[in-house]
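Need the bound structure for 6-O-phosphono-alpha-D-glucopyranose, inputs here:
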Amino acid sequence: MDTSAAWTALASHVAEVPPMRELFEHDPDRFERFSLRTCGILADYSKNRITGRTMDLLMDLARAAGVAEKIDAMFQGYRINITENRAVLHTALRKNADEAVLLDGKNVVEDVHRVLSRMDGFVSRVRSGAWQGFTGEPICDVVNIGIGGSDLGPKMVVEALDFYRQKNLNFHFVSNIDGTHIARVLNKVRPETTLFLVASKTFTTQETLTNAHTARDWFLANGGTRDGVPLHFAALSTNEAAVRAFGIDPANMFEFWDWVGGRYSLWSAIGLPIALSIGMDGFRELLAGARDMDEHFRTAPFERNLPVILAMLGVWYRNFHVFDSHAVLPYDQYLEFFPRYLQQADMESNGKRVARDGRDVSWDTGPILWGEPGTNGQHAFYQLLHQGTTVIPCDFLAPVHPLHEVGTHHAILLANFLAQPEALMRGRTREEAEAELSVLPPEKRSALAPHKVFPGNRPSNSLVYDRLAPRVLGSLIALYEHKIFVQGIVWDINSFDQMGVELGKQLANAILPELLEGATGRHDSSTAGLIRYCLSRRNELEE
Ligand SMILES: O=P(O)(O)OC[C@H]1O[C@H](O)[C@H](O)[C@@H](O)[C@@H]1O
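Answer from helper R.:
Posting the output first, comments after.
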């Protein structure tokens, strides 16, 4: 990859791009040239270190990497997850019922809509109160027990769309094996009125099964009856045998399939908490928004294709400027969990070091992704964004309209949302800094001025949508999914496995009996020392 003509051309082009301030001064149409409206989102990518030629070269690289062919292959259900020999078909989860996607000769869209209509029935019964707990009371609290993709997506969307939530239902998400997590939730709910959704693609995940057992024990110890279990426990999974073995009736299981990656699963039965919160119509709107973006991604020419553009800008920074991280900064409190959700989507997908053929890559792959809502972040880490020695490309997101009616908050929020990318791009020169300090005596001025200089030329994208609603949220999430996909193609990695999470799990399984039985196995002196310390300190504390 890094020896291709497109790659080499980009490598020598880096030095040719003037600072952004200059580019804006010389081109009054820069915003028009480098912005795009699609799927309810205005994306301004003009505050990037790019010229028209940069974009041409980046699109050459995308073409050389075979992005167009790979997009087709994904949508058609080819087994592009090569290490697991699986298709990658989260896009089939949002197809209309009259469309078809064939996998091994079977139309998977039929399965998708069969499960959607089962979800529909369940959702309306729970929301209307027709679904009753073991004492005949309706459900008030839904506790989703899952981790990773079986937690982050539904949790992020339920929170993001809380405005649309049916207000007599409350949602809780338990993921961590740390018992504190479930204990705190169980303290807030009543067994009579609580519905537990055990969400796990594999239904073998230690955290989820442990938490689910704890929830069931709590239910039975607090007045719940064995006959009542089916009224209070449902499973969202691909693994019917394991669901049965756990004791959940398959009638209460909402199914999905191995061609849905965990981090791409919120569109499947894993989205049941979303549907319970905003209703099935809202959930279908979310799917429709993702479908809008799928269509855009599949059909728009690369030059006007938002996921491709954002992906290639990311490649530009990661590989040709060697910037390590990428910040996602929603100026929308409802998107509080969006960066955290994207961490799994992006870092589990593209945190890879071998190419598809198993050879070590000689180029950088996925960046560190992180972020917090604005304006909070401004009062925490933006100092580094503006004046630190490292450059962090940012995505700023904001709604034009708020979903509340409190005072002038939204204008202030938007002013900040607009000012930060401007400040990052423009910076402040030494002369400007000195001019601002003109009231000071010259020696004080020159002592202070360097601290007030902002280098500027720091890149960002701004994404603006009307107001946060299911449809545009669906488009936004799918935008990032496809961006990650394109980058994985360019980096020639398999974005769809996650083998890097295995080793730690295996070692934890080896250490657990040592902690329970008090014997130390074979470890390096650091790990052995820590185990010994924990065991002896625990004994002392328990005395
Ligand atoms: O849904 P589950 O099978 O319980 O998996 C939950 C999570 O577990 C693993 O650690 C994977 O790295 C994640 O990709 C996955 O989302």
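Comments: Residues 500-540 form one domain. The chain has a mean pLDDT of 97.
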